[in-house]
């Protein structure tokens, strides 16, 4: 059973910052890759950032330099620190764990950036 719970979303003005958190109620958290996706209305869900068990990271080009993904294995939590937010970043953000060849998502948290 996989349970992922995101938090930290909200309304922020353009140029502001926000930190998203996702806590996973799974065993062996430390050996799995973790990812953040986002989906705006009428669009496909897109991969924003990923982090491996060894803490190597990758970012979608539009967020590179503004977003930072990190993990705390002791807390079984993955974070997405977002700075320099733009209205185009408005979306529902989902945490995902890549476990045994498949992805599991949380319920999502809404991020709204006003212009």
N-to-C order of helices and strands? EEEEEEEEEEE
**Percent helix:** under 10%
Shape: globular
Please outline the major beta sheet: 7 strands, mixed
Low-confidence stretches: none
Question: What structural class do you assign from the helix and strand content?
Answer: mainly beta
Structure notes:
This protein has strands spanning 4-7, 10-13, 18-24, 33-39, 46-51, 57-59, 67-72, 77-82, 91-99, 102-105, 109-114. It is mainly beta and 115 residues long. The strands form two sheets. Strands 2, 4, 5, 6, 9, 10 and 11 form a seven-stranded mixed β-sheet that branches. A hairpin with a 5-residue loop joins strand 5 (46-51) and strand 6.
Short description:
This protein has 115 residues and is mainly β. The chain is built from no helices and eleven strands.
Defining key terms:
globular, mainly beta, 115 residues, 4-stranded antiparallel β-sheet
Summarize the SSE layout with pairings.
Blueprint: E1 4-7, E2 10-13, E3 18-24, E4 33-39, E5 46-51, E6 57-59, E7 67-72, E8 77-82, E9 91-99, E10 102-105, E11 109-114
